[in-house]
Every structure is written in C-alpha cells, then in structure tokens.
TrEMBL record:
Its EC number is 3.6.1.27. It comes from Lederbergia graminis. Keywords: Antibiotic resistance, Cell membrane, Cell shape, Cell wall biogenesis/degradation, Hydrolase, Membrane, Peptidoglycan synthesis, Transmembrane, Transmembrane helix. It comes from the Bacteria. This is Undecaprenyl-diphosphatase.
Length: 283
C-alpha cells in the first residue's frame, strides 16, 4: 500500500464511522466522497471490490455499537449485568424477539434485491434523490412528534411488537443507498410513538445483526475479490470506521434528545443541492 492508499482508506473509514449512525446516510456519503473525489476503485482494481469495501467496513461501526450497548445486548438474551445501565429499566424490557421482528422485513427484501440494489442504486444521482426523500420523512416525523408531545412517547423498553414490525418496514426504505437506515428507522420509530432517544437506541440495537449480516453476505459472495493486495486497505478502513463510529454514537445519543431530526434534514437538503450542482458541472 502507498501512503495515498492509506489516506483514502482512513478517509472512507472516517466518513463511514462518523455518518453511520447519524441520519444522513453513511453509504450515500461514501458513494459521493469516493465516486466524486477519491476513486477507490482505481486503487482496488474494480467497482465491485470498491462496493464490497463500502459494505464490509461497516463491521467496524458494528463493533462500536456492541461496545456502547453491551449491557443492553446481553439483557436481550436474559443476562442482566450488574451496575448502572441507563439503557435497562426495572419494568418492561425489550426482548430479542422484538429485535428479530423489526429485522425481518429488511432482511428478506435485502437478500431478494441485493443484486438489483448493487447494480442500479449505488450511483451519485440516486443517492442525491434519496438524501432529499429521507429529509422529507424526517421533517414529517419531527412535526408529528411535536403534535403528540415528545414527553408522551414510549421508551425503549416499552416498544411493542406492532411498533417493531412497522419500524422494520420503514427500515426497508433504507435499502435505497442515501436514504439512511438510521434516518428511516428513527423517523419510523418517532412516527410510531417512540421518543427520539428510544427510536435511536432501537435503531442502533437492530443495526448489530442486520449490518453484520449484510457485511457477511457481501464478503462471502465477493470472497474471490479479497486478494492479499486489497486486505490491508480493508483493515485500515475497518479500524478507522470503528474509532469514529464509537465517537459518533456517544455524541449522537446526546444530540438527538436536544435537537431532534430537523437539523439533520436541513443538512441533507443543502448537501443534496450543493452536490447536485457540482455533479452537473462535472458531467
């Protein structure tokens, strides 16, 4: 690897980790940053390997979630760790079955349409459209929460199976790169009556199996492209994504309670407008 290769892997890991759990679309940002600026496919040898990289380094972000939510994740399987845990209550508890129910819709559709998504939706044009569409959904969610009063929303451990499946259906929209999985599920959770923080927590917990599954499927199906030459690039991206995802999660969980979704929606619209102008000028 050259110094430039390392810098590119670090930047893409930074973009993935910093944006994975903010409702702005990490995949969309990586497609934009990479396709318009860094061109990792020239380093890795093909667009196929570059797309696999963008999915696989999400494992670094998953590891960050596991570390932040480790007590809650253990409690899902009935193991309750002692000590203070702001994510675990003494009343009703979120169960593993709630998470599974929430995962089913996107898991089924993701497997069924993986090839179509890779072929047609991993493009700058579709990402820009998704940024705007996701922003509209977030604005609607914030408006609905304001109408219903945020303080009346359900907590994480009060999530019902009906809410879980409906949030899972919202998650399906995020199969469209650029829409944002966290943006879709947090908005869906708020629309289903959850508090913003509870919706964010549920989103992060659901992220562990679904992101791990997506990364594993992509890695296994593209295993033949994982040569000794590209593995160091993947490792650097993984470590970078882990570090910045851990920082992002801790910061975002505090931020979402204070500013809600509207500022992120505005950011998405402004970003789409700016990048749209740049993209058109480059054509």
């Amino acid at each position: 690897m050259t110094v430039w290769d390392i810098i590119v892997a670090l930047i893409l890991g930074f973009v993935e980790g910093l944006t994975e759990f903010a409702p702005v679309s990490s995949t969309g940002h990586m497609i934009i940053v990479d396709d318009m600026l860094l061109k990792s496919q020239e380093i890795l040898g093909s667009p196929e390997v570059a797309n696999t990289f963008k999915v696989v380094i999400q494992l670094g972000s998953i590891l960050a979630v596991v570390i932040v939510f480790w007590k809650k994740l253990w409690s899902l399987v009935g193991i309750h760790i002692g000590g203070k845990d702001t994510n675990v209550t003494s009343g009703p508890r979120l169960k593993l079955s709630h998470v599974i129910v929430g995962l089913l819709p996107a898991a089924v559709l993701g497997l069924a349409f993986e090839d179509i998504i890779d072929q047609y939706l991993f493009r700058v044009e579709t990402v820009l459209l998704a940024l705007v569409a996701g922003a509209v959904l977030m604005i609607i969610a914030d408006w609905k929460a304001k109408q219903n009063k945020e303080s009346d929303g359900a907590s994480l451990d009060e999530v019902t199976y009906k809410q879980a499946i409906l949030i899972g259906l919202f998650q399906c929209i995020a199969l469209w790169p650029g829409f944002s999985r966290s943006g879709a599920t947090i908005s869906g959770g708020v629309l289903m009556g959850l508090k913003h923080r509870a919706a964010a927590d549920f989103t992060f917990i659901m992220a562990v199996p679904i992101m791990f599954g997506a990364s594993a499927v992509s890695l296994i199906s593209k295993w033949d492209v994982m040569t000794a030459e590209v593995i160091p690039f993947f490792v650097v991206g993984f470590v970078s994504a882990f570090v910045f995802a851990w920082i992002s999660i801790r910061f975002f969980l505090v931020l979402i309670e204070k500013i809600k979704l509207l500022p992120f929606a505005i950011y998405r619209i402004v970003l789409a407008a700016i990048l749209g102008v740049i993209y058109i000028s480059m054509m």
